[in-house]
């Protein structure tokens, strides 16, 4: 009936209004977040399985809004991508991570790689190469200490433009890793056409290790694939000793996860790196 239809519309639109309002508030706050200095980088160590030394750090952005509190990147990164704000935010992340890494090296701390996540939207930006090049020269960070992470889904969808940009980036001397490997639908032959240095095994497979399910077989296969293609391989989300033992046994190069370290603010990373400095 007409009456019923009207009621449904009213119900539906009030819930939708609420949702839209929330999204709008979040978007408005996000627009101001950069100028208000609300972003902060955390860093999570990447550890060599063989030596157990920290060989890299992944920069992970955090948004601390005075009204809304801490907002997970899983919430605001998609919004930033949708609004295009990921371009200036991504630039800020890149600059901050590179400057921080250079600062630690200048202090005499053991040099490590710095991995920075790049969104597909950033790969579509024609200025990306110029931004990375300029950031390296402005911060003075040696390009071999910068790694750029591209998600497997981006790599899978990637056209000739993406491959072209990856080659140009590699030309600057940075390394490239494929994040969340195994979560997407990229064909394995695709991997061989991409100029990448490292693959990061998706956390979902790590979760199933030492539980006697098929994730172990998949994980072993990914490690072997990486070795056959001469790529470095890192497992993400390693939380337990038995998971670590698995990656040790199958000679995964590196691991990243709560088992060793959580993402931490710069000051805590600095103390840890200082502890590694040989007198
Ligand atoms: P990701 O790139 O796959 O990053 C790994 C996520 O796993 C991080 O979540 C990290 O804190 C978490 N993690 C690491 N070790 C463990 C573990 O042992 N157990 C569990 N349960 N989790 C672990 P986070 O920091 O919340 O970031 C979520 C996602 O947001 C990232 O996933 C990435 O896709 C995106 N992101 C974060 N920072 C940036 C950024 O600066 N730029 C872009 N484009 N995306 C970012
Ligand atoms: Ca990542
Ligand atoms: Ca990942
Ligand atoms: Ca992820």
UniProtKB/TrEMBL annotation:
Organism superkingdom: Bacteria
Domain EAL: 23-277
Record-given protein name: Diguanylate cyclase
Organism in which the protein naturally occurs: Paenibacillus vini
Lineage, highest ranks first: Bacteria, Bacillati, Bacillota, Bacilli, Bacillales
Parent-protein residues present: 746 to 1024 of 1025
